[in-house]
Amino acid sequence: MDPLKVALLGCGSVGTQVARLLSTHAEELAQRVGAPLELTGIAVRTLEADRGPDIDPSLLTTDAPELVKRADLVIELIGGIEPARTLILQALAGGASVVTGNKALLAEHGPQLYEAAERGGVELYYEAAVAGAIPLLRPIRESLAGDRVRRVLGIVNGTTNYVLDKMDTAGLDFSAAVAQAQSLGYAEADPTADVEGYDAAAKAAILASLAFHTRVHAADVHREGITQVSAGDVASAKQIGAVVKLLAICERTVAADGAEGVSVRVHPAMIPASHPLASVRGAFNAVFVEAEAAGELMFYGQGAGGLPTASAVLGDLVSAARNRVGGSRGPGESTYAQLPLRPMGEVITRYHISLDVADRPGVLASVAKVIAEHGVSIETVRQQQIESEVGEGRASLVVVTHAATEAALEATVSALAGLEIVTAVVGVMRVEGED
Ligand SMILES: NC(=O)c1ccc[n+]([C@@H]2O[C@H](COP(=O)([O-])OP(=O)(O)OC[C@H]3O[C@@H](n4cnc5c(N)ncnc54)[C@H](O)[C@@H]3O)[C@@H](O)[C@H]2O)c1
Ligand SMILES: N[C@@H](CCO)C(=O)O
Ligand code: NA
């Protein structure tokens, strides 16, 4: 068979490893595909940079559109919206299948790209975009195609997991932990997308779209990052036998009248130390998928890093290439269900509420009354005196609630903050996961 022409766009952490594996595994890849894969060029921003021994300098070009024009398969590893979007659209329109790891682009402009793939009669694969090396999107799209996914819950950002892990195990504060993540190459020079939860929210949108056959955009995802997580929150979690993790949670919801919907959120949460997600350390990722017939499935592995991510890219490349050789096409976008997105207020969760209160008779009763008035039930209460030399005695009161709607919990917290005996609402964090 004639070789299939492969264009690589971007030669950074992932692109370099993809180029290297394409060359070192060339023979095996040809066997698996049924035709040789010929890397015809690598689009870069500047030709001058030294890219090490793995990159053949004669393949480098700054003319990405020209490279795309001649390709059967295009691998986009530039990242960001433009020029990645225009180049992918050009490739799909020109009849080339595309493999990308670009979650930001997919979560924002996915529909436009899928439609272009459909029109071009070609494929668009993106396993690397969510949880790096971990095979997760293909299992959801293909292996679970006969089942109904109820929930996807997981840690999908390596940088923030590393930061929270260091705050927990090494007692670092937030900025020291971020600095360490940067020095190890996990966090970018500008870690905003990671620490503010944008990266995880884009991944959650992609996961929810696949799991629920519904278009979910990044903007549909309720997003809170980890910048507000304090050493105090991490210590409070420890006291109740929990750890703080940044979670992505995609759920199929069912209203009282049976109407189904979807809720998608990314936020820090306390989870019991005995929960399998609690033991996901460092920059690793782990995702639980709960389906009606299959039950709970857990996917675990390296969610970031050039080499692990390259594995997912090449897996997609082999699939797309094999289909091309066989004249077939894998499944395209599936959005037939188009379930409505439910507002955050309807989400059912538990809260850990930490208060500073006046240490005088009746305080506990007043707090309990406010909570009960909002229809929220208390799971545990812990009170501790705060040492103070002057004025009235103060105490720290920690309440963990039973599950209630987010709206009821929010209203409870504002009512508590308004009580004269509450000096400060020290921290509020959701509690997720069963023991
Ligand atoms: N690094 C990871 O762990 C990881 C994991 C999963 C997914 N991804 C995704 O993979 C993609 C690439 O990530 P990365 O870590 O390799 O990024 P990177 O920043 O290391 O590499 C991107 C490269 O693209 C180059 N580039 C920028 N504009 C260009 C242009 N117009 N033409 C050609 N090259 C251009 C940059 O100079 C850089 O070398 C991103 O979409 C990222 O989100 C990365
Ligand atoms: N910045 C991302 C890379 C993988 O998508 C992370 O830390 O998980
Ligand atoms: Na993956």
TrEMBL record:
- Pfam families hit by this protein: ACT (PF01842), Homoserine_dh (PF00742), NAD_binding_3 (PF03447)
Q: What are the residue boundaries of the ACT domain, all occurrences included?
A: 352-430
The enzyme class is oxidoreductase
Q: Which domain of life is it from?
A: Bacteria
Annotated binding of NADPH, by residue? 103
- Pathway the protein acts in: Amino-acid biosynthesis; L-methionine biosynthesis via de novo pathway; L-homoserine from L-aspartate: step 3/3; Amino-acid biosynthesis; L-threonine biosynthesis; L-threonine from L-aspartate: step 3/5
| Alphabetically ordered keywords of this record | Amino-acid biosynthesis, Methionine biosynthesis, NADP, Oxidoreductase, Sodium, Threonine biosynthesis
Q: Binding of L-homoserine: at which residues?
A: 188
Q: Which cofactor does it need?
A: a metal cation
User: Does the UniProt entry include the keyword Oxidoreductase?
Assistant: yes
The residues the record assigns to binding NADP(+) are 9-16
Q: Which reaction does it catalyse?
A: L-homoserine + NAD(+) = L-aspartate 4-semialdehyde + NADH + H(+); L-homoserine + NADP(+) = L-aspartate 4-semialdehyde + NADPH + H(+)
Q: What is its EC number?
A: 1.1.1.3
Q: Which terms does the UniProt entry file under GO BP?
A: methionine biosynthetic process; threonine biosynthetic process
Identify the SUPFAM superfamilies for this entry: ACT-like, Glyceraldehyde-3-phosphate dehydrogenase-like, C-terminal domain, NAD(P)-binding Rossmann-fold domains
> What InterPro entries would the database entry show?
ACT-like_dom_sf, ACT_dom, Asp/hSer_DH_NAD-bd, HDH, HDH_cat, HDH_CS, NAD(P)-bd_dom_sf
A single GO molecular-function term is: NADP binding
Active-site residues per Swiss-Prot or TrEMBL entry: 203 (proton donor)
Instruction: Please give the family membership noted in the entry.
Output: Belongs to the homoserine dehydrogenase family.
Q: What does this protein do?
A: Catalyzes the conversion of L-aspartate-beta-semialdehyde (L-Asa) to L-homoserine (L-Hse), the third step in the biosynthesis of threonine and methionine from aspartate.
Record's protein name: Homoserine dehydrogenase
